[in-house]
């Protein structure tokens, strides 16, 4: 029975034109990465689950694609359950005896659920004898016991013989399995997961290969990542990331270079007038310090970010609602009117943050970058200070970057990045400062498409098609095709012989539909004279030429 | 707690040099693919499971990496089990009543396992009332019932009240779960799987997009595939495939072009003297026909393949052992001494296969290809007939290709392919003949490495490093670096200032270890005079130059 073919939601097939355009963007980015001294690395599509899990928050963990273990992937789980069934029955029996204060099922349930520790403290004596750790008990055994309680009245239970309790083990498993949460089962079923971004695998790579790496290490990486996100317009479950990072240097020259790199890439793509927005985590910390609300940094930034949309009054209202003091808001007044050039904004910030050491440090960093960029001059991009920029607040510690498309193009950010002071700490390599940027391939694609910036040459495929008039003509044609190909001309012979005028027409149409600009008509006459009739499919013009002329016309 | 970082077995990290070499091979292949008129496509890394499962045999199904469903992936499974528990109890009760001939558990079990159909025919009456289809019964319900029988004596069971039977449902689930085979559970837990090769996704692509494709469709695809194979030397769980296929034409010119394409790629890689072995499935069918052993085609080919290693006598012995008749072996005699040029071998085959229409058809096809290739001439490869070549016997229907490395290099095949007459039938598009070839990236890599054929230029990264003497010098240097980069020179500034001679030495060593051929020394004096001291790191030679001279020396 034939299947109706489809692909998973959130994934895409790319045809020749898509591939050519995507390749053009990636190759342009890659070329600039290399000119700037970044070296390529590639990491496996899947990592050990513990490399990825816990690095992106709970939401991230949920969105990571897990790979089912191969082979008899249930064995470990089932064996573990089985070995605990017997133990849990014994513990339960003892627990019930000691806690006759819980005569009925409902109370036992609620007490146990409320007080895992109490339950486990009683059970622990037995656990030691059984060789079970407290962690194992809490993670594996207690859920079983709780499930058990929910289906058998405790009064009946304590009358059970050991044999009967053991016989109940399958019953427990059934009950347990019914209540099993995926979070719990997943670790038994899966120990590998698809890459969620390129930063964590990069950190893992740096730590694993630290002895083979010269620091500062400038690497780039262009590979797909996968996220089990709800698919929507412009958001996919499989997409490429294009990242460049430096690890092992705190020098602000890196930040300067990344601004230049953004400029270089977008200029090379002829996407002129992008805005590179920059901020610094230290400035955000300084502001929070000044208004005495270190814990409200996110609320504050979220509110400030809406200034353009809802206006000063409503932003202040929201800040008050989030518990930011009137005094704090007064101190912030200059922020609401922060305007003008980078330098002017910096001066306003200096007065706001005069009392904050960390804030002033942030200003100093921004000033350094701005001065350097002013001296070096950007080709087509605009560098702009944006104190509301707070992306990745959780892990950035210094500069924060975000790039937006030229004015008039409605599109979210097409790039972003920043500095994180402890990139590799999670894998045991301390004090490695990292800074990096990323390019949003899919969005850049949409912007170039909208502005009609893809060079027309990139989707050009075959240059010439030889119409196939029959065996002898085809053999002669293939000889010419072979020589053209050796001279790097993209040439093809239609594989099947056209024995009628209608079929020849079909082959011409094939060339047309594939946008092949030339066809060679190589019929009986041409074969006799060893000449080639070359037809320009755009102008319709035809000329009959020898091979050398043909080559020079197609080269 | 820091994790010790590692990657899953069978996967690899690639450093800059690895990436450069692999890119070189892939770009070389890609260039020839394009010159030959192939167009790129890309398909998603994961496909719907039913697109892949059942296409590669049982072993293949086992080796496909499955992706765990996201979210509450157990819900469907548990709901299905729960809804069937009650139904299965009722059916069981009735079944037991009607089949009192099975008084004890063991007999019931063995009968049920032997005779699923019989059991289900009794149960079907009830199924109709319950709204359960026969397929559902066999796939979902019967395994539950069987598990049930294995743990409760039937004599007890038929005494159960309906209420008691329902109470047993959790027990059944537990028992069922304990006996659950991964094959059964997997379809509930996973509906996506990682690409196992590029051929099935290509077939899916062609059918899905048939209305947008011009046939014959020549596509290439270079993407990773994943197999849960036992990792071993040279065999990985993630590896790239590089495939070119044509679909929609039966013309033998395609086969001719693929031989040329192999020759073109390996010649471009400077890997001269590879052997392109060719065979034809029709010849193998012809041989089987001649010896009256159509069903022993694989045994026969496996035995014949050992001719070089074990000699004629032992091959014949093995054939006899597999049941091939003495008469058949006598008829095959000329095969054992098949020697000489392609043309001579063809003549011998003609006499062997004179009575087989299909065999003669295969010979005709081989002759056509050989004649064409002789006329067109290969650049560096050798085309060789090999009647023992039988790779992919299950799906190839015409030509079979395999490429081996030049003599003296110990390596399995570095490429292979063939024609399959019904590529897309499984997805509902009939009569689409396909023919294609594949390049083995990892093996080609090893061969090029062994023969030292990688061009030294491909691993060249940064051309010049500016030593960082301090803020002012660095700022001046970055100006020069920026201008060099704009002229496409790969240039870097060491990000951190070297304030001591020791630190400057460290920066020089950094350049050395990274194989950066030039450094620029830009100290206080150079800053004053706006001159650059350029040091050649290989010769040690130094010269002081202005920017224009610097640029022309590095360009």
Task: List the SSEs and their pairings.
The structure is a homodimer.
Chain A: H1 16-35, E1 39-40, E2 46-48, H2 49-52, H3 57-63, E3 66-68, H4 75-98, H5 105-114, H6 116-130, H7 134-149, H8 154-157, H9 162-167, H10 169-179, H11 182-189, E4 190-194, H12 199-208, E5 217-226, E6 238-247, H13 253-268, E7 275-280, H14 281-290, H15 297-304, H16 307-321, H17 326-336, H18 342-352, H19 357-376, E8 382-385, E9 399-404, E10 415-420, E11 434-439, H20 441-450, E12 464-466, H21 471-486, E13 491-493, H22 501-513, E14 518-521, H23 524-529, E15 532-536, E16 542-545, H24 547-554
Parallel strand pairs in A: 1-5, 7-8, 12-13, 12-14
Antiparallel strand pairs in A: 2-4, 3-4, 5-6, 6-11, 7-9, 9-10, 10-11, 14-15, 15-16
Helix pairs in contact in A: 1-13, 1-20, 4-6, 4-7, 4-10, 6-7, 7-10, 13-19, 14-19, 15-16, 18-19
Overview of this structure, please?
2 copies of one chain form a homodimer. The first copy, chain A, has 555 residues and is of the alpha+beta class. Chain A has helices at 16-35, 49-52, 57-63, 75-98, 105-114, 116-130, 134-149, 154-157, 162-167, 169-179, 182-189, 199-208, 253-268, 281-290, 297-304, 307-321, 326-336, 342-352, 357-376, 441-450, 471-486, 501-513, 524-529, 547-554, and strands at residues 39-40, 46-48, 66-68, 190-194, 217-226, 238-247, 275-280, 382-385, 399-404, 415-420, 434-439, 464-466, 491-493, 518-521, 532-536, 542-545. In chain A, strands 1-5-6-11-10-9-7-8 form an 8-stranded mixed sheet. In chain A, strand 15 and strand 16 form a beta hairpin. In chain A, helix 4 crosses helix 10 and helix 18 packs antiparallel against helix 19 (357-376). Chain A is elongated, with a radius of gyration of 34 Å. The two termini of chain A are 49 Å apart. The relative contact order of chain A is 0.10. At the A-B interface, helix 1, strand 1, strand 2, strand 3 and helix 10 of A face helix 1, strand 1, strand 2, strand 3 and helix 10 of B.
């Amino acid at each position: 029975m034939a299947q109706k073919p489809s692909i998973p939601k959130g994934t895409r097939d790319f045809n020749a034109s898509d591939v050519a355009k995507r390749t053009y963007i990636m190759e342009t980015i890659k070329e600039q990465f290399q000119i700037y001294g970044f070296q390529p690395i590639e990491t496996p599509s899947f990592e050990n689950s513990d490399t990825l899990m816990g690095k992106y928050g709970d939401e991230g963990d949920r969105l990571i694609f897990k790979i089912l273990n191969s082979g008899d992937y249930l064995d470990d789980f089932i064996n573990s359950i089985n070995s605990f069934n017997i133990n849990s029955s014994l513990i339960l029996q003892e627990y019930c005896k000691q806690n006759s204060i819980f005569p009925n099922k409902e109370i036992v349930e609620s007490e146990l659920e409320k007080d895992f520790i109490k339950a486990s403290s009683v059970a622990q004596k037995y656990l030691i004898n059984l060789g079970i750790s407290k962690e194992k008990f809490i993670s594996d055994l207690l859920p079983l016991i709780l499930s058990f309680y929910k289906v058998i009245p405790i009064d009946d239970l304590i009358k059970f013989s050991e044999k009967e309790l053991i016989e109940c083990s399958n019953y427990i498993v059934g009950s347990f399995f019914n209540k099993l949460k995926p979070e719990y089962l997943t670790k038994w079923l899966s120990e590998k997961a698809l890459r969620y971004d390129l930063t964590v695998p990069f950190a893992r790579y740096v730590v694993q290969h630290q002895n083979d790496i010269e620091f500062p290490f400038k690497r780039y990486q262009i590979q797909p990542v996968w996220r089990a996100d709800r698919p929507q317009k412009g958001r996919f479950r499989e997409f490429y990331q294009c990242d460049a990072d430096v690890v092992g240097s705190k020098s602000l020259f890196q930040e300067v270079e990344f601004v230049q790199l953004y400029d270089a890439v977008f200029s090379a793509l002829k996407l002129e007038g992008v805005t590179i927005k920059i901020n610094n985590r230290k400035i955000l910390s300084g502001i929070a310090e000044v208004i005495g609300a270190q814990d409200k940094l996110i609320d504050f930034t979220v509110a400030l970010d809406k200034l353009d949309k809802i206006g000063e009054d409503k932003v202040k209202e929201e800040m008050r609602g989030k518990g930011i003091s009137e005094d704090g808001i007064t101190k912030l007044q200059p922020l609401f009117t922060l305007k003008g050039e980078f330098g002017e904004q910096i001066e306003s910030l200096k007065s706001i943050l005069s009392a904050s050491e960390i804030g002033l440090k942030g200003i100093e960093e921004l000033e350094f970058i701005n001065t350097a960029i002013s001296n070096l001059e950007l080709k087509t991009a605009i560098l702009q200070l944006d104190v509301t920029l707070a992306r990745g607040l959780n892990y950035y510690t210094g500069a924060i970057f975000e790039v937006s498309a030229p004015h008039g193009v409605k599109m979210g950010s097409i790039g972003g990045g920043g500095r994180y002071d402890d990139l590799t700490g999670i894998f045991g390599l301390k004090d490695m400062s990292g800074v990096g940027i990323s390019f949003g391939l899919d969005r850049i694609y949409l912007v170039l498409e909208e502005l009609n910036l893809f060079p027309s040459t990139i989707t050009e495929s075959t240059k010439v098609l030889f119409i196939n008039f029959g065996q002898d003509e085809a053999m002669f044609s293939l000889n010419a095709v072979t020589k053209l190909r050796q001279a790097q001309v993209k040439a093809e012979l239609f594989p099947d012989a056209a024995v009628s005028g209608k079929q020849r027409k079909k082959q011409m149409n094939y060339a047309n539909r594939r946008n092949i600009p030339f066809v060679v008509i190589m019929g009986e006459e041409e074969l006799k004279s060893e000449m080639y009739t070359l037809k320009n499919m755009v102008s319709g013009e035809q000329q009959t030429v020898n091979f050398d002329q043909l080559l020079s016309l197609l080269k």
